[in-house]
Amino acid sequence: MVKRTQTAAAARGGPEDERLGIGKSFTYGIQHVLTMYGGIIAPPLIIGGAAGVSPAEIGLLVASCLFIGGLATILQSYGVPFFGSRLPLVQGTSFAGVATMTAIVADGGLPGVFGAVIASSVLGLLITPVFSRLVKYFPPVVTGTVITVIGLSLMPVAAKWAMGNNDKAPDFGSVSNIGLAALTLAIVLVLSKVAVPAISRLSILLSIVVGTVLAALLGKADFSKVADGPIFALPTPFSFGAPTFDIAAIVSMSIVVLVTLTETTADLLAVGEIVGTRVGRRRIGDGLRADMASSAIAPVFNGFTQSAFAQNVGLVAITGVRSRFVVTAGGVVLLVLGMLPILGRVVAAIPYPVLGGAGLVLFGTVAASGIKTLSKVDYDGNLNLVIVAASVGLGMVPIAIPDFYHHFPGWVGTIFHSGISSAALLAVVLNLVFNHLKPGKAGSDPSVFATATRVIDYSDLKALSQLKNGDKIVDGKIVDAEGRPVPVQDADGRPVQYRLGSGPEAH
């Protein structure tokens, strides 16, 4: 029966066009919402906290992000002409721009953030027709570096949350606060180990719920103001004032948009492969236009840059439910949640130490995703290691020393105060210089970094399993295709002076 239904769906379109009925669609759609809920509420909590707004206003930001995330998800999955990939792809507030927007909000406030998001998203919308030609300048060595720095740049936020967030509060950094964060972290780890897949996948969200209950029992949670305000309301356009437009902030967010476009392209290709449907240039273009259009509209409803949620791509693979209408149902659920500001106030009342404990894993997962991407990069015989090392290093500077650019002009600080912008700029430039611009014979005088990453294990040398095409023997020693000597080491990692035919000369 299932096979016949899928065949019929394929006849009408692709596997993603299968209709499961309203009941099943909303059941599976709610599962998508729960999977990404922890990720979608974190950005407004971070940005609102950095802006110094009240808990009620943070609640408004949370509700707004849920609302615009619902609209963006419906547009992406259901689609209209020229907008929407019509694939089971969930949209929500992007983590990629959080650190950059936190830097912008320090000078321009929320109106400055909203202005930068609108302008950069319009720019992203304009370049979507030619973005397929730009993707080659954002290979895994660049995107992996940037995603890693995104995760690392959010760690100070998690640490401050764990301490209580308000550095003027008498209990800031107290043992009770950090202990509550540690307990929440432990709950995340325990739930992640549970053999029930549904519980394991929702470990972040469930840990926040359990941690909040424990905090309430300990007298460290205050929900007295949750009832202050309407239960149901539509987001009011520009609740925080008209957007302002600063060139440096726009440039900084434009870099983030390029990274977001790259991530969404990867997610479109990934979900197409999982679903088993062809994703061509036109479909990618429609998907990216939906991404940027929803991002440009988001600030009108007090939201931020939108992007595809990779964890939901994984959920499609795990469940095998490929219908895009399931994700559309999830978008409707998000839309309804966004019209319940009381829910936003509940989220805003969650104790910061609880968020800090969960945030360590949540933000660490972002960094781990970047490291996973970097693990797929080829480091042999090139300078990719230098690209990663220099870009991560520059990206970590403003994270380690926030006042590093204090004496520079304001526009320099706005662009480079974000570790993400710093890392992305340098990674793109170095990738162009080292991997695309080759005026001379590459490798004629190689950097130590280019050869240091390849070493042959002497204990496995007789099997010749480590030799590559182009390797040759010169004067009894191994050299690669460019004539560079290939180091040989023993099983303990010690260098071996080796001459073929005579064995090891010395250790």
From TrEMBL:
Residues 484-507 are annotated as: Disordered. The chain crosses the membrane at residues 34-52, 58-75, 87-106, 112-131, 138-159, 171-191, 198-218, 238-261, 325-344, 350-371, 383-405, 411-434. InterPro entries: NCS2, UacT-like, Xan_ur_permease. Pfam families: Xan_ur_permease. It is found in: Cell membrane. Keywords: Cell membrane, Membrane, Transmembrane, Transmembrane helix, Transport. It is a multi-pass membrane protein. Belongs to the nucleobase:cation symporter-2 (NCS2) (TC 2.A.40) family. This is Uracil permease. It comes from Amycolatopsis oliviviridis.
